[in-house]
Amino acid sequence: MTDQRLERLRRLAPELRLLTDAADLEHYGRDWTRRWTPAPLAVALPASADEVQSIVRWANDEHVAVVPSGGRTGLSGGAVAANGELVLSMERMNRVVGFDAVDRTLTVQPGIVLEAVHNAAREHGLAYPVDFGARGSCSIGGNIATNAGGIRVIRYGNTRNWIAGLKVVTGSGEVLDLNRGLVKNASGYDLRHLLIGSEGTLGVVVEATLWLADPPPPTQVMLLALPSFEALMQVFAAFRARLELEAFEFFTDRALHHVLVHGAQRPFAEDYPYFVVAEFASGSEAREAAALAAFEFCVEQGLVLDGVISQSDAQAAQLWRLREGITESLARHKPYKNDVSVRVSAMPAFLAETQALIERGYPGVDVVWFGHIGDGNLHINVVPPEGMAQDVFVAQCEQVTDLLSAALARHGGSISAEHGIGLVKKPYLLDTRSEAEVALMRGIKRVLDPNGIMNPGKVFDA
Ligand code: 2HG
Ligand code: ZN
User: Coiled-coil segments, which residues (predicted)?
Assistant: First the structure.
């Protein structure tokens, strides 16, 4: 390690673990987007908030950019380090720090994996209800940085709803202890919510206090086959009116094709174009009867063509695998991803317009639709045609995303529902947010990160 800047960091924080091997730079320099070539200066793995603060102060002195890094499961390039940055990996800060039974809070370090948070909450007879497919790899710090959503938002909301307190080191190296677990706190601006979803551009979380929920009720999972996109929202309305929904997700036959190729079990003998995975409270005769009635109603209306209902946890997990396995089953194709949202009430009109736009924009191309339809959130993954160069493919996709982004602007939607802006959606930010808003964001960044060292180039350019 010959870099003078790193030598000075070593002197400031003698215990700090620093990695500079090519394999480590490659590993920690990328996230799941796989579009950029990793090229960080080094990787720092602090073990304490004090070390994080030393690193941020050093970065200000040396004018080194810092990329905060969790599980790097992000899909928008928010954790990519491709320009000589220092990767600040929170991987070693992964402990549960405390639990309070009266407050019903769990205090954790940012590098803890989401699944470990679920397990810790369960050990105390409670639940941390934010959940999604990357639960085994993503970290709570990254969840907070992107205000992650996932599969239970219709019932529990986004990560933001569950953050009782945050300790952060800002870009200027200050430590802030925000909200401290208070339920009520009307003492001026709530800076906690400014940090949530800021994608590491304002500061880095060094500790989080999470609210916990009652354990979920016993549930059952239904897989439904649908004839059309139009039926989706009607089935959602019928189910929401009759059942206590925990999740309501959809995917298309192309998504099913990919998860089946990837080893999942075929659910129906016949082919159908659209599918829904619905999870709902069960465990009583009344609830089971309501589920059957909802199903029968939708069948009678011609909205549902076929269905199965889980009779065990293992069967429920098998049905969920069809939906949760989609991202992984597509990964080897390096798909181009869209993660868009509109108000739920705008979804039918937006869906019709988007379907036409995608069919025109991608004639004959494998387009995979899925997502959290009950939250107005669509994932549209485009699989590159065999043999097409990645840059040519991305350029073509971006032309379609230009149109999609304009359609979103007309419908008052967002170019990023839950994956963040990062690098991937930066060109479209001004379709979703006004000039005045982005100017304010820049101003806020200047206050919290005056030297622009925190994840520069992500979300917007300075
Ligand atoms: C999901 O809902 C994730 O499964 C990933 O948000 C979506 O791969 C995607 O596009
Ligand atoms: Zn999603």
Answer: none
